[in-house]
Specification:
By secondary structure, the chain is α+β, with helices and mostly antiparallel strands. It is built from 11 helices and 13 strands. The chain has 2 domains: 188 residues, 2-Layer Sandwich (Ribosomal Protein S5, domain 2); 127 residues, GHMP kinase, C-terminal domain (Alpha-Beta Plaits), CATH 3.30.70.890. Strand 8 and strand 9 form a beta hairpin. The protein is globular and about 60 Å long.
């Protein structure tokens, strides 16, 4: 199929950290992360005139030239434009013939993002910026047939996200780019993880800005303990020992409560956490940076789900099952 007729459409997952989310911000430390299937969708087709970025989340369309991508670093399109520029630059430096001919063909594209992950104060906390970056890298790679490996695409996406955000562990990029669930070591290892229990997300509806929270200073003892707990939880998952997993997940939650400043656990999160963990067959933890947003819930069985779902809804808290996204190639 020629580029003039080509249209690429792809779905991109979100992510939920469930261990090590603060420790992993320091190089060499560990985290456990899973992906969550969403309706976040990205499409690319050839444009007749200028290239354009479009979305359904309330941002104005952005027009530009693919041969000379210029934009203000304060632009709300910064993640997408930087990802696009870095993907084409990486492929061009590899001397891919398809890229070297882009300027000769005068190709311009229409890239459209349709998201249900929210924006600004309404975001859901599933890593929307990381989803944008990974989605652009993967979609551009597919549209122009760049044949970039998964490892190279992760490298481009990680570089882009850090360049724009200025901080982070790249754990969200690793999970979203590789799919499934992962045992992640900052700047070192990405290993697949198979979670044997049903997974749910508990949404409090209060957005939190992660970038501001991960700059908190923590002790060496905190990092050591967090890493030990991540390893113990990964082992419990591997041997499918739910009781051990719940015990270590709770210890990890307590470690964060003792070390993260006041506000980490909101009233809504506390209510949901206490209710869910009172059931032996359920294991819940605040996902990500806290200060709002989500809990992640693991269920050895689903017998109590309808009951707790009803109780939480009385406080305006939503509980829903989610599917872990497929692994990528």
């Amino acid at each position: 199929m020629s580029i003039s007729e080509k249209k690429i459409k792809t779905k991109i997952p979100g992510k939920l950290f469930f261990a090590g989310e603060y420790a992993v911000t320091k190089e060499g430390n560990l985290a456990l992360i899973t992906t969550i299937e969403t309706n976040f969708e990205m499409s690319i087709s050839r444009a007749s005139d200028k290239s354009v970025l479009k979305t359904n989340v309330g941002l104005a369309d952005f027009e530009f030239s693919l041969t000379k991508i210029e934009f203000d670093k304060e632009s709300p399109w910064n993640f997408a434009l930087t990802a696009l520029k870095n993907t084409l630059s990486a492929a061009d430096s590899s001397k891919k013939e398809s890229v070297s001919k882009i300027s000769e063909l005068s190709v311009e594209i229409c890239l459209e993002i349709r998201s249900d992950l929210g924006f600004g104060e309404n975001k859901k906390g599933y890593g929307s910026s990381a989803s944008v970056v990974c989605g652009v890298v993967n979609a551009v790679n597919q549209f122009f047939d760049l044949q970039l490996s998964l490892e190279k695409r992760f490298e481009i996406a990680a570089k882009t996200h850090f360049e724009v955000q200025g901080s982070g562990s790249m754990g969200d990029i690793a999970a979203i780019m590789y799919g499934g669930s992962v045992f992640y070591q900052n700047h070192n290892r990405i290993l697949p993880l198979e979670i044997p229990w049903k997974t749910y997300v508990v949404q409090t509806g209060k957005a939190a800005k992660t970038a501001e929270k991960i700059k908190i200073k923590l002790s060496d003892e905190f990092y050591q303990t967090s890493n030990e707990l991540v390893i113990e939880m990964a082992t419990a998952i591997d041997i499918q020992d739910f009781s051990l997993f719940k015990e270590k997940l709770s210890e990890n939650q307590l470690l964060l409560l003792e070390n993260i400043p006041e506000g980490y656990m909101t009233k809504e999160l506390a209510l949901a956490l206490n209710l869910l963990n009172s059931y032996p067959e359920l294991a819940a933890k605040i996902s990500g940076a806290g200060f709002g947003e989500n809990l992640i819930l693991f269920a050895q069985n689903s017998m109590a789900i309808a009951e707790v779902q009803k109780k939480l809804s009385e406080y305006g808290i939503n509980l829903e099952e989610f599917k872990i996204a497929q692994k990528n190639n």
